[in-house]
Amino acid sequence: MRQMISVKSLSKTYGSQVAVNDLSFEVPAGQILGFLGPNGAGKSTTLKMLTGMLDPTGGTATICGFDLRQQTLEVKRHVGFVPESGAVFESLTGLEYLEMVAALYAIPEEAARARIRQFIAFFDLSFETLTDKLLGAYSKGMRRKVVITSALLHNPPVVFFDEPLDGLDANAAVGFKALIQTLAREGKTIVYSSHILDVVERVCDRVIIIDKGRLLVDGRPEELVASHGSGTLEHLFTQLTGGGELQRRAEDFAKTFRP
Fold this sequence. Notes:
This protein is α/β, with parallel strands linked by helices. The chain has two domains: about 150 residues, P-loop containing nucleotide triphosphate hydrolases (Rossmann fold); about 70 residues, no CATH class. It has eleven helices and ten strands. The model has no long low-confidence stretch (mean pLDDT about 90).
């Protein structure tokens, strides 16, 4: 299968601090990759590099065959990105924001309106909400829906999601999970970073776990869990990233409340 993402020895440092350390992997078309790690592991830094938002310190990467460092604009044209922050221009209405995004990608106005209507119907948003309220007045979940829509509006072949379920209610979360599985079946490459490991285990074809900027394991969730005798992806994650020590500390802390 065609490799839509190819990462070779990618690194990012801030002075003496190493955020991403010699990271290498490939992702083919149509695959949902779970990209996991504890806080500070380098996940968001990696995603920002692969979407052209940060310059790597070392290594190379290609997205859809375009070199990340030499063809950054082409990379940005071919990816969608939902950042963890879900930041938007709060002084715009939802419609103004989405139309601005459409204009940046040179989507004709009529086609943009049609796509926007499809997305807001999917996310159960009213067109009046998009036109009558500024984004600063939206709930966290509503803003997340707008950001997801903006990331998919130009129909990118590669999409990066960083904690996409944050703020979504249960129904919207179920719909979103069905959406990314459908996108993958249509050939899109999905990189899904999340701390909700039971969801990752159910929807991802493959997972990568990193810690301190380094790759720890890479494979199909069920195979990794079986090979480590972990039972679940969550247990595997804690086993590899030191979560067991946190569990013991939590138990010791809880004992202080006993009479």
